[in-house]
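Hi F.,

I've been meaning to write this up properly since the lab meeting, where we talked about keeping a consistent format for the predictions we share between groups. The idea is simple: the sequence comes first, exactly as it goes in, then the structure tokens exactly as they come out, then a line or two of notes. No screenshots and no reformatting. I'm using this chain as the first example so we have something concrete to point to.
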Amino acid sequence: MTTVLLLNGPNLGILGDREPEIYGYDTVDDIAKSVADEVAEAGWQVVAIQDDHEGGLVQAVHAHRRSTIGAIVNPGALMMAGWSLRDALAAYPAPWIEVHLSNVWARERFRHESVLAPLASGVVVGLGAFGYRLAARALLELCGPDPTHQS
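Output, unedited:
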């Protein structure tokens, strides 16, 4: 079966409770379910991983680099300083989409640059949990109807 990797970085494990006025009320489990629903019609499944440690995310990218068709990555604050995550994603052979729940460019200046975004196939910001569904749709489009062919 074709699988999508869904990665959520530091502090995203407390979504739903963490500053809901910024991040919304959906939990990481809610988000994983919505992504799974989005790709189910194509016969794809989702492996969802949340880790507060960069090394855990790096290990997940390496462990799933050959078994997944693409990835959706919300690196959280690692977008600004996650250099080892960046290197892992540079070696990830499939398309991947960077997602942020909030509009990072409407927030503090230190959030305005991602070290990961230049490597991503696309970036979705500011659309809350719905952004993950859009990222899933983008992967469906990028990977095409034949999951063995990756664009």
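Notes:
The radius of gyration is 14 Å.
DSSP finds six helices and five strands in the chain.

If this format works for you, I'll send the rest the same way.

G.
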